[in-house]
Amino acid sequence: MDRLLTEIMKESGQKAGNTLFIQIKYPHFLANSIVIKQGFFFLLVTNGTTAITDAFHRYTLSANQLLVLTPSTESMLSDASSDFSMSALYINPDYFDSLPDGQPVYNQVARYLGNYQLPIFRLQDAPAEYMQKTMSLFSEQLKTMQLY
């Protein structure tokens, strides 16, 4: 049975208000594929590979690739390698739309969606490391600091 990424994040990730964060590793894939839908998701692969499938294509994601998904897309993660890991950040769509930077970020990824492609960005080592550190601010710190 497939599982929703937001369910996995609520069960074993960090939560604050309209934001969820989790580090996903290979064991999450042992029995199921993971369905991603109805939210803004920022997924950074930190190790290994996985497949992601949308209505049009199947892609292979590997280390240092950032995938940005919007509420209008539905995708499925599957076939992760045994060394796979990924940082996943979810932002509730209503909250995202209220952010001053929400529309500019959406405009950056919208050009991919209109071309029936997922917005997948290959990052160099230094920017990938910076992105991972930035995303980690949504993990343990959310337990004590609810403002960001």
Report on the structure:
With 148 residues, the chain is an alpha+beta fold. The chain has one domain: Jelly Rolls (Sandwich). It is 28% helix and 36% strand. Strand 2 (14-16) and strand 3 (19-25) form a beta hairpin.
Describe the secondary-structure layout.
Blueprint: E1 3-4, H1 5-12, E2 14-16, E3 19-25, E4 34-37, E5 40-47, E6 49-53, E7 58-62, E8 65-69, E9 74-78, E10 85-91, H2 93-98, H3 102-113, E11 120-122, H4 125-136, H5 141-144
Parallel strand pairs: 1-4
Antiparallel strand pairs: 2-3, 3-10, 4-9, 5-8, 5-10, 6-7, 6-9, 8-11
Q: Quick gist of this model?
A:
With 148 residues, the protein is of the alpha+beta class. It has helices at residues 5-12, 93-98, 102-113, 125-136, 141-144; strands at residues 3-4, 14-16, 19-25, 34-37, 40-47, 49-53, 58-62, 65-69, 74-78, 85-91, 120-122. The chain has a single domain, classed as Jelly Rolls (Sandwich).
Total count of strands: 11
Distance between the ends: 35 Å
Radius of gyration computed on alpha carbons = 14 Å
Parts with pLDDT < 50 across at least 5 consecutive residues: none
- The backbone outline, from C-alpha atoms, is globular
- The class by helix and strand makeup works out as alpha+beta
Average pLDDT reading: 84
**CATH level 4 superfamily:** Regulatory protein AraC
Count of spatially separate domains: 1
The succession of helices and strands, N to C, reads EHEEEEEEEEEHHEHH
CATH topology: Jelly Rolls
Q: What kind of sheet is the major sheet?
A: 6 strands, antiparallel
Count of runs of 4 or more consecutive helical residues: 5
**In the CATH classification, which architecture applies?**
Sandwich
- Strands in their spatial order, largest beta sheet: 2-3-10-5-8-11
Strand content: 35-45%
Fraction of residues in H or I helices: 25-40%
CATH class: Mainly Beta
